[in-house]
Design the sequence.
């Protein structure tokens, strides 16, 4: 078991022994940000300055897969307190075939030997999150050249099947909008219904009917409607809303009782 | 590596060597059936005639996780040609703790030794399917006493975290209804809108608005409206519909363009 004593570089924070890790299992995080009505994704630049990758890593035998996704995200980008949502397992054996592994290792400028830990087949669990773009200052780990936001519709060259993973995360996030609220960390404390709708429209990449959107949002019971402060000409000003934090978190956990 | 030569009983069809399997990874299938307006789940009875379990098993190093779920379902219940949908990964280390493993092995009347394959931590990938109850004649494998349908709201005692897995599958299936059609294998060739709505209502466990449901279903473009054959008193008879197979399968794959 000479692999047991090998150290695996897990990013900037820690190295782990192979024996401490779940074999053949990894996590990959797709971090979406919202800026200027554009959806972006956070990527790490490989050492070869050509290929990019998702901030991913391995699962310790002692931790849950959810905790692994959080730790890996922090170790590789410096981001923490991010609500990560598991969305899909990528379990095709061809995703870990030798040629892909070897080219990814080259991109990261890591050695790829015969008995390499990376040479086994990996099943990866995808997680995604939607974060507040402005508050995020990502910092790359020691095995990456840089860490940067990319428009989801103009992705650079990515290692492995990371392009497919991003596409799948985007589809999943769009589906999840049907039963999970978003916007809590993306909007100022008070916002208009139009502000909220524009986030949904950007993510869904299509226009929504205003009255239908307003009705569904209000029915979810997660919004507080604010009093208009000024009378007079102000009757034309839109209402301001804020999220009811407790109700929002409850709906995030339980799902909307969305009318079909 | 003496574990490598051990044979793992994978059900009625095959035994595999430990070295052929992905370590620490399993799949569990939640098979829902619909009968008499009641939602049911297919379970295997452990040899001790007291505990029940989901038809689950391991992943060969050479096969995709999706193919593993199909193979395992066939080997353990005799069911094939079932469209299995991955819904969640159960990756908490406590789900494979010794006491749970040992009690599950006892229920199956399998030995639980120190160096047992089953003693490692398992991350399991959950799959679900909704099948035509009447056409299913499940046959248990050699490590199970029987195979039977159980009402989802009256579950027997289950091993591991299988009760949680079923609850999670039910929630996922309810969410998926928002962007995936159902009913294709559950209804006769021609059916009324009321027939289809009643399937949705049973799964969602609540009443739906009829005109809203009809509007959404027709908008999806997966239904063929049949001519009424008789005039006269027949104006009170409901329209009959059938699924457009090609469109149905396309929507199943791509998702509804569901208006929020």
Sequence:
């Amino acid at each position: 078991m000479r692999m047991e004593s090998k150290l695996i570089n897990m990013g900037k924070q820690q190295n782990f022994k192979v024996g401490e890790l779940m074999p053949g299992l990894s996590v990959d995080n797709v971090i979406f940000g919202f800026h200027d009505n554009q959806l972006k994704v956070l990527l790490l630049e490989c050492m070869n300055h050509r290929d990019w990758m998702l901030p991913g890593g391995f699962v310790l035998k002692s931790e849950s897969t959810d905790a692994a996704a959080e730790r890996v995200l922090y170790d590789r980008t410096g981001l923490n307190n991010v609500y990560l949502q598991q969305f899909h397992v990528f379990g095709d054996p061809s995703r870990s075939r030798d040629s892909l592994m070897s080219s990814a290792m080259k991109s990261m400028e890591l050695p790829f030997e015969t008995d390499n830990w990376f040479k086994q087949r990996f099943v990866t669990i995808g997680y995604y999150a939607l974060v507040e773009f402005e508050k995020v200052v990502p910092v790359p780990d020691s095995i990456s050249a840089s860490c940067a936001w990319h428009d989801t519709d103009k992705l650079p060259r990515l290692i492995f099947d990371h392009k497919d993973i991003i596409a799948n995360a985007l589809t999943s996030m769009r589906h999840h909008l049907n039963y999970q609220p978003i916007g809590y960390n993306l909007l100022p404390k008070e916002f208009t219904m139009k502000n909220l709708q524009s986030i949904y429209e950007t993510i869904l990449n299509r226009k929504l009917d205003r009255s239908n959107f307003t009705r569904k949002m209000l029915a979810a019971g997660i919004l507080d409607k604010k009093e208009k402060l000024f009378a007079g000409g102000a009757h034309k000003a839109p209402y301001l809303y804020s999220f009811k934090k407790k109700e929002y978190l409850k709906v995030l956990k339980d799902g909307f009782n969305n009318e079909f």
In short: The interface with chain B takes residues 22-25, 59, 61-66, 68, 86, 88-89, 91-93, 121, 123, 125, 171, 175-179, 200, 204, 208-209, 212-213, 216, 255, 258-260 of chain A (CB under 8 Å). Residues 1-5 of chain A have pLDDT under 50 and may be disordered.
